[in-house]
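Suppose a colleague, Dr. K., hands you the sequence of a protein chain of 108 amino acids and asks what its three-dimensional shape might be. Before reaching for any lab equipment, you can write down a predicted structure in token form. Begin with the sequence itself:
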Amino acid sequence: MTVEESPTIKVEIYDQAYTVRSDGDPEYLRQLAEYVDQRMREISSGTLTVDSRKVAILAALYIADELHQLRKAHEAADEQLATRSTECSEMLDRLLKSPRSLDSAARA
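The predicted structure, expressed as tokens, is then:
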């Protein structure tokens, strides 16, 4: 399916209607548009600017910050998981080696 054949989905962001071509899930795209709309409204309520372009840029920065913070948290969780996994593997190795050395001593 080419871009021209992709279905169109209508969304509204900050009182502007957009028609988007996408092969993705239309409901997911609507949720994304709703999220962007909410962020833009939050930004506009907290600033003096009424310029929708500036509000969009500030919302994009807000969303980019969220993304980067989540990536950092994900990387930290991955590192912690890798460390714990290594520790567990090392403990398991020690435990598996222990009984064998006890069995050898008992046989001698």
